[in-house]
Every structure is written in structure tokens, then in C-alpha cells.
Amino acid sequence: MVIEEADSEESIESDFACPEQFGYYPDQSNCSRYHLCDHGKATVKSCDSGLYFSTILKTCDWPYNVQCADGNRGNAWLL
To answer: From the centroid of its chain, how far is CA 20?
Structure first.
């Protein structure tokens, strides 16, 4: 599965606790960010401008396709 990423994006190490060794996980506070776990090490990634991370598709998508309120995911990612 491919995740759309900005060309100028930097990877920032995260304190996120990876539930599995590999995977894509939503940021709990920002709908346009997600955590990429690689060998148990998490980095924060951002979607391209105007897109939100879809917990269903595990990729960045248009906001109207993603359950998120005002760019702040809150607990919506648990649904």
C-alpha cells in the first residue's frame, strides 16, 4: 500500500508506541499526520496539504472521505 507523502517532508522521530513492528497509525490530535512504524521505531509523517490520513485506507485522502472534526481527530480514529 502506498501513502502519498510530500516531497519536502521530513521524518521526525516520535514517542508513539508502535502496536506492531510495521504499520501506519493515525496521529490522535492532528488529522493530517500519521505515524509510520518500521521495525518498531515510529516516525511522524504528514499528508500533502489539504489531505487527511484515512484510518480505513491507511493513506491520505480528501477530508470529506475521512472521519475527522475540524482537523482534530480526538477519539474519532477509534471508530
So the answer is: 15
pTM of the full predicted structure? 0.72
Burial track 41-54 (b if 16+ CB lie within 10 A, e otherwise): ebebbbbeeebbbb
Per-residue pLDDT of the chain (79 residues; tens, 9 = 90+): 344 444 445 567 778 999 999 999 999 899 999 999 999 999 999 999 999 999 999 999 999 999 886 656 554 444 3
